[in-house]
Every structure is written in C-alpha cells, then in structure tokens.
Amino acid sequence: MRAPIGNFDEARPAADCLDELNPAVAEALRAWRGSVPAEQLLYVDTDPEKADTAVFAETYGPGLLEASANCVVVAGKRGQAVTLAACLVLSTTRVDVNGAVRRHLGVRKASFAPMDTAVGESSMEYGGITPIGLPAGWPVLVDAAVADAPHLVIGSGRRRGKLIVPGKALAELPGAEVLDGLGI
User: Fold this and answer.
1) Within a 10 A sphere around the Cβ of 40, how many other Cβ atoms?
2) Does 51 score more than 90 pLDDT?
3) Could you give the domains of the chain?
4) Which residues pair with 163 in a beta bridge?
C-alpha cells in the first residue's frame, strides 16, 4: 500500500504490524474504538537513526515537516501534585507550555518533563513518544491544527517506525482535548 504522504517503501495498516510497535501502542490499537477505522492508521518502517523530526522530514520526503506532529510530555505542578500530560502540535510549531498548557491544566508551573520521566512513565522510547497508548488518565492536549490535518506522521512508541494517521483520529483519543493556540 502507498502512504498518503511521504516517500516510504511501504505503508501497512498499523493493526497488522503490532509486533513492530511498542506494547502499549499495540494494545491501544487492539482496543481501537474511534470513528476513524483502525485500518486507516498506517505504519511505515523507518530508520531509527533518522527519527528526529527535521532529519526524518529531509529523508522521507518534501512536505513531511509540515505533515508531522510532535508529542511532548509536560509536567504541571501545583503544590506537591504533579500532572503529566501529552501535548500534540505540528512539528513546525512549539508547545505553549507557559501559556495554554499551564492555564488548561490549572497548574502554577508547567515545563517539559525530564527525559527519564517521559520515557519511564509513558513506557515509550525517547524520540518515538506517541499519544496512542499513553497511560490512562493522562490528558492528551491536541492543537486544533493537528485535529484538522488530513494525515500526519507521529511516533510509534519506538524510534524505529512511524504512524500515519488522520488528525481526526488524534482528536478522538482517550483523554484528548482539542485546544486552539496550543502550538505557537
């Protein structure tokens, strides 16, 4: 099957590639219930050495920088309580951590979670964190531009391989909340 975006050798339904995915991502795909059929979520095999967004886009095709979304883990603090949340923005923008995220989570301070926290709590590899398969209860903040995109490249939970999904599917993830101005 040909991928709707990018220059990949092959795209396959992610549900047919569960052994190549992070276990939490594979489990989330097994339980998929969104209005976008699971068959429309695609897996593409990619070089793990080229997983970082800019290098990835340069390697796998023009236009991929604009058709990629980054998922970052943010830690919000109010007193001693810490809330972890995933933020999904277009790769051409950055997360408004000190504005939109802080206000939405109702915390006094918000910052990017340390790498060991993001990796340990998500059970995913750094450079491959994806909003699909995150721990139950995590807020998944999705920029409105992500939700409106026809197709986006996101992580697969591992540095090897990426998922290509309709933005609508990301807006329907468990815990997802679409926010205007999350990406600036």
Assistant:
1) 16
2) no
3) 12-176 (3.90.960.10)
4) 43, 154
The CA distance from 148 to 158, in Å, is 25
pLDDT tens track for 117-143: 999 999 999 989 999 999 999 999 999
User: Residue 123 phi/psi, 5° resolution?
Assistant: 65, 30
Size (the chain), residues? 184
Burial of 12 (0-12, 13-18, 19+ CB in 10 A): middle
- Cα 142 to Cα 160: distance, rounded to the nearest angstrom: 23
Strand partners, 95: 183
Q: Could you tell me the pTM of the whole model?
A: 0.94
- Give the type of residue at 156: S
CB 87 within 8 A of CB 134: no
Q: How confident is the model at residue 52, as a pLDDT?
A: 82
Of 54-58, 74-78, 92-96, 102-106, the poorest mean pLDDT is in 54-58
Asked if residue 128 lies in contact with residue 163, where contact means CB atoms within 8 angstroms, the answer is no
d(CA 49, CA 51): 6
**DSSP SS3 for 169:** helix
